[in-house]
Write a structure and sequence with these properties.
By secondary structure, the chain is mostly helical. Helix content is about 85%, strand content about 0%.
Length: about 425
């Protein structure tokens, strides 16, 4: 019985996070290659990260999603909106309407960010205990990355043949199908999803008029200060490398189609494997011990990747080493992401039910903000200082984060969490 219920939860969460990852895949993998092929600078490509800005603002309307309407209505409305956006974009010619492409991605990010608040709130209420948290966050990360691979890798590999209109018509049908699925999803009928809303409706008026009380409550949740600093910084060095190394390969070693396959499909497949392994490992080991080791391995992998920047002549050996580097980097990145979102959700579950969705959205917003700000600046750093100097800086940031995590596993928040996870 527990297995059937858990499977329903995992399918529900995985599917919603899949469609949520599609805008990210379009923007992070397809758009940079399209713009670079059209001759745009790395600085301009980096600045397109501003289209992610709705994810930074989502914490402002998270209380509204927490207290108004139901999770089902929010999810159906946002996913239907994504379907309509894709339908309206199918007739667009991207070469002649670059601002239209940007507008499409901005609207998709806006709707996906609201969807994220609703599905995160549902996940916090649905997942109970360490095992369910590990499996649920694996479904979250794997689903999101699978959507990103589908949009940024699979569609990039065939867009030259199928065309822009076909791609967006396909996305229209995907979103419409998921909207119908959510409308009838039985997991949203559980009382646990209505409890926080009922509590909020009884006293939501006063706190809606006094938002500082909500912020004070969120910051008072145990473990929140450390988690805030961690989610802002844990991806900085990795994000710079993940953003710029594929463009280095495009400049010197690979075609856009090759890059779409090796980076958008194969490397992201390794990322999904890493995320899946994270959920399994969390059922066996403490999160502190896992994070300590994985962050050190990530730093070592970045040393290897940085060394490849000295090779400018194309060769089969260089391509093989580049693919290996990206695969290892994405595998470890996927593993770290699962561990991170589990840490965030564990922290959120210590908060009052009436602010849990807002608390988790707050942490998730900061997680996006940290990656977004650095991704936007990474292209300018490469244009100004070159790949080698920029990657040395990325490596330094990665090593600093590993030290931060290592310290926390012995004296900080991760040590406390590990002690609570020990069997009694």
């Amino acid at each position: 019985m527990w297995g059937e219920i858990m499977n329903d939860k995992l399918v529900f969460l995985g599917l919603l996070y899949f469609v949520q990852g599609i805008p990210y895949g379009l923007q992070s993998s397809l758009l940079p290659v399209f713009l670079r092929g059209a001759g745009h600078s790395l600085t301009r490509i980096g600045l397109t990260k501003i289209l992610y800005f709705p994810w930074v603002l989502k914490v402002l309307w998270a209380p509204l999603v927490d207290r108004v309407g139901t999770k089902r209505r929010w999810l159906v409305a946002t996913v239907s909106g994504l379907a309509l956006t894709c339908l309206s974009s199918a007739a667009m010619a991207p070469e002649a309407h670059i601002w239209g492409v940007a507008g499409t991605l901005l609207v998709m990010n806006s709707l996906a960010s609201v969807q994220d608040i609703a599905v995160d709130g549902a996940a916090v209420a649905l997942l109970k205990g360490r095992v369910e948290l590990g499996l649920g966050n694996t479904a979250q990360v794997v689903g999101y990355k699978a959507g990103s691979v589908f949009a940024g890798g699979g569609l990039l590999a065939v867009i030259d043949v199928a065309g822009w209109s076909w791609m967006f018509m396909l996305l229209t049908f995907v979103y419409a199908g998921v909207a119908l699925f959510v409308w009838g999803a039985p997991v949203l009928d559980e009382e646990t999803l209505r409890g926080p809303q009922a509590e909020g409706s009884r006293r939501g008026g006063q706190e809606a008029m006094r938002p500082w009380r909500v912020w004070r409550k969120m910051l008072a949740v145990p473990g929140t200060p450390w988690t805030v600093l961690y989610v802002l910084t844990y991806k900085l060095g990795e994000q710079g490398a993940v953003t710029m190394f594929p463009l280095f390969l495009l400049d010197h070693h690979m075609t856009a189609r090759e890059l779409g396959f090796w980076n958008g499909v194969i490397a992201m497949g390794f990322s999904i494997c890493g995320s899946s392994l994270g959920g399994l490992l969390l059922a066996q080991f403490s999160i502190g011990a896992l994070m300590r080791r994985v962050f050190v391995l990530r730093t070592v992998s970045m040393v290897f990747q940085s060394s490849l920047l000295t090779i400018l002549e194309p060769s089969p050996l260089m391509k093989g080493m580049a693919v290996l580097s990206m695969s290892v980097q994405h595998f470890l990145g996927g593993l770290i992401t699962t561990l991170t979102f589990t840490t965030m959700m564990h922290c959120t579950q210590r908060a009052e039910e009436s602010i849990q969705a807002t608390h988790y959205s707050f942490l998730a917003t900061l997680e996006v903000l940290g990656k977004l700000m650095f991704s936007a600046l990474a292209g300018g750093m490469v244009d100004w200082f070159g790949y080698q100097v920029a990657f040395l800086f990325f490596l330094t940031l990665s090593a600093g984060t590993a030290l931060h995590v290592w310290t926390a596993t012995f004296t900080g928040a991760l040590r406390e969490q590990a002690l609570k996870e020990q069997p009694k």
